[in-house]
Write a structure and sequence with these properties.
By secondary structure, this protein is of the alpha/beta class. The protein contains eleven helices and 15 strands. It has two domains: about 110 residues, Enolase-like, N-terminal domain (Enolase-like, domain 1), CATH 3.30.390; about 220 residues, Alpha-Beta Barrel (TIM Barrel).
């Protein structure tokens, strides 16, 4: 197998802000693995919060290329276990390899991944559309642009976030609203603000406090009337069992857990732990979004909008119907092609 890694810089339609940072360009990495006449695609979205950069990701992928050059692509478990042991700080790079291998194998077998896994494409969820932190004026404009999306996810974690949320609800009285504070609140603040969330009919609250304190999450869960989801607290399969009883569900991101294989493990552990499942994303092209969408029939919720937040997606994969429900295609592998 021949692996190549190259920069994939994606320009956002609008600056995208959370409680931690602002992005104008997502500096991702495209991975291609060639075996004979077939090429599998994958994508990494390095996360600076975890000390990952485009440069560190490409360095890791160049080293990975040498390790897998003589391997059989069907040796998924062995290959990926080795990469997780050798490159523990580069899960996004490993995810790109994982996705490219699944794409390659799907093409070898002439099967889309959802069919290979025995999933029902009719059971895909709707995806939410994310409204990043911004001035009130710009939030209002973004909500207007998102008119066709029936589910919105509102990023919070600033001083006037309840004011912003009230205005969004005023503008969208019939839409499903979800909120994500990206670790921007304290426990006390979360419990207080949850009263407003409940009054506004918010579907769920995602990761209000920093990761690493499951007892605090449990206190919040038992004190509020809104469902509680994790993100930063549920990075990898080993994180999931301890969250049972502390939250209502987990958000799974391929670039955080290390790809499709680890995401499947998280899904099964979560189901066994009585937890709901959301598939999420970073700012990504249709390579990563298409890969995550292959697992979406197993999820309760989807937040797979990274590709519609960018102005220059070089690929196509999953589409959306009029209600923003994910539509999987019949192309082999992860269903991705050049735009």
């Amino acid at each position: 197998m021949q692996l190549t890694a190259s920069p994939l810089n994606l320009t956002l339609r609008h600056a995208f802000s959370t409680s931690r940072s602002t992005q104008h360009i997502a500096r991702n990495v495209l991975v291609e693995i060639r075996d004979g006449d077939l090429v599998g695609r994958g994508e990494a979205s390095p996360i600076r919060l975890y000390n990952q950069t485009q440069e560190s990701c490409i360095r890791a992928l160049n080293a990975i290329a040498k390790r897998i050059a003589k391997r059989d692509p069907f040796e998924l478990e062995t290959i990926l276990a080795d990469l997780r042991a050798r490159f523990p700080n580069e899960p996004s790079a490993i995810a790109a390899v994982d996705i490219a291998l699944y794409d390659l194998l799907g093409k070898k077998m002439k099967l889309p991944l959802w069919k290979w896994l025995g999933l029902d494409p009719k059971k895909t969820p709707q995806t939410s559309f994310t409204i990043g932190i911004d001035s009130m004026e710009k939030v209002v404009a973004k909500v207007a642009e998102a008119q066709k999306y029936p589910v919105l996810k509102i990023k919070l974690g600033v001083a006037n976030d309840m004011e912003i949320l009230r205005e969004v609800r005023k503008l969208t009285p019939k839409k499903l609203l979800r909120v994500d504070a990206n670790c921007g609140w304290t426990v006390k603040e979360t419990i207080q603000k949850a009263k407003t969330l409940e009054a506004l009919g918010i579907e769920f609250l995602e990761q209000p406090i920093p990761a690493g304190n499951n007892a605090a999450l449990k206190k919040i869960k038992n004190s509020i009337g809104v469902s509680l989801m994790t993100d930063e607290s549920s990075l990898v399969p080993a994180d999931v069992p301890a969250l049972a009883g502390c939250v209502d569900g987990i958000n799974i991101k391929l670039v955080k857990c290390g790809g499709l294989r680890e995401a499947l493990k998280m899904i099964h552990i979560a189901r066994g732990s009585g937890l709901k499942i959301m598939l999420g994303c970073m700012i990504e092209s249709s390579v990563l979004i298409g890969a995550a969408a292959q697992l979406s029939p197993l999820a309760d919720y989807a937040d797979l909008d990274g590709n519609v937040l960018i102005a220059d997606d070089p690929f196509t994969s999953v589409k959306l119907d009029r209600k923003a429900k994910l539509i999987l295609n019949d192309r082999p592998g992860i269903g991705c092609d050049a735009a």
